[in-house]
Prior knowledge:
With 71 residues, the chain is mainly beta.
Amino acid sequence: CGSVGFEASGPSSLNFVCHCAHCRLHSRLPFTRASAFLPRQVRWRNEAGMKKTPSQPSGAPGGPPSNRLHC
């Protein structure tokens, strides 16, 4: 729909490629490339119009809980 988006500034704190079951499930791809930014580096576009879907209770394996944002 084009209503979900963000802008990040500055260098990313983490860049990775993952093929775990969690990432394959959410991306519907055999692997995912991703980058992580600190909260202060990210500005969401149309955040009020987005739906938040919690990911699995523990978030990504070994990581904190997170939300998936979509329209």
